[in-house]
Request: fold
Amino acid sequence: MQLPRTLGQLKTSGYRTVSVKDELRANLIRKLKAAERLFPGIVGYDETVIPQLINAILARHNIILLGLRGQAKSRIIRQLTLLLDEQIPIIAGSEVNDDPLHPISAHGRRTVDLHGDETHIDWINRDARFVEKLATPDVTIADIIGDVDPIKAAKGGHLLSDELTIHYGLLPRANRGIFAINELPDLAGKIQVGLFNIMQEGDVQIKGYPVRLPLDVALIFSANPEDYTARGKIITPLKDRIGAEIATHYPAELQTAVSITNQEAWLKRDGLSAELHVPEFIREVVEQIAFEARDDSRVDKHSGVSQRMPITVMESVVSNAERRALLTGEEMIVPRISDIYAATPSITGKMELEYEGEQIGASRIAKDLIKRAAGEIFEGYFVGIDFGRTVNWFEQGNNLRLADSAGADECAKLLEAVPELIQSALIPFEFGNKDSAKVVSACELVLEGLYADNKISRNEEGGYTAVTKAKKDRRGMIYDDLTETGKYS
Reply:
């Protein structure tokens, strides 16, 4: 079907103008009736955030999403465009998406007055109707609303007070669409006043000249809850115009977090030299690190620990395992605990530390988080399994070091010397002792779990040894063994 190309054809087609909030509501209702998936790729919000979003859209509210970093706020906002019509008509050449039937700009009105039913129509798609701005203290009224353009005035022979001299800002250009501002509290108060005024009264003063702009815009904001409530930088009249305040959150359950990382992490890599297999317990340990960090008093709660942490950690873990396979020529890439330690740089940059944490150091905090996470996952897999003979072997003065660059066969031979370690490590899993790469990964989980339970020790070089009597007496002193050195057989 050919789209109307003139105002006359548009009128004949029976097209009716619908406000953007009514459009969002109608398309949402259609999707709900058809049982279509809303907000694809958003995991863990089905019972919390998404129902609240649906209610807000059905109520035609402006929305603010409150949440810490890495809680998919921006992704949700951008996916709201999926609730817009695929295309809408505008007056050709309009900077503010003028509705051909009801133009709001001086350019639009004059074009219709001049050409009547022969006014040329353009069609814009839904993506062109989304405008997003990151709020920063240096944003100006000119950026958001607009400013007088002397060049336009000179070329057109207009007075500076003529609306045709205006260079429109982001908000007018979002007319008949969605206008999103990220980190709203960082927007200066006078800009918020201008934003509120144009939405409430439909007018604004630019360089002292009043301009009527009855915009049709759905406003969506995001903010950190600490900024929003404590710093108090959102002006009261603007807050009052926000109909729905929706709180996002980090995943509440480990498996939900694993699903997010599986979806987002770059693991399907072209040109891999070997087959990649990531054990489920490795995925769980990586995810548990973020859970441990969010509960750690040394990590800044107001900043949060982004869901991007386990994503980047998983990518680094796989990269270290890939590097090992390239060096050893192995045909299967299987990450293990030592690869998680090698991914420490992907952890340290994702945490804001409190004073105590700063004194200890990000690297030590990261290693402690790995230890605790591995201990937590170890308990889930090996509850009730006795590793007494394995611990005894270390207490007899034996040491074991599994370098993260050593091949699976080499590590498996070292592990065979430890009584009952391999046999016990395989109990919860379906693979056999012939899958040496998987065996090594499982055994490293056991060793790290025993270390987390203070039954054996681990030093800075990644070697496992017996726990000294002094350390047994100081159970819970988590940094004692981070600087030890030792000799390995």
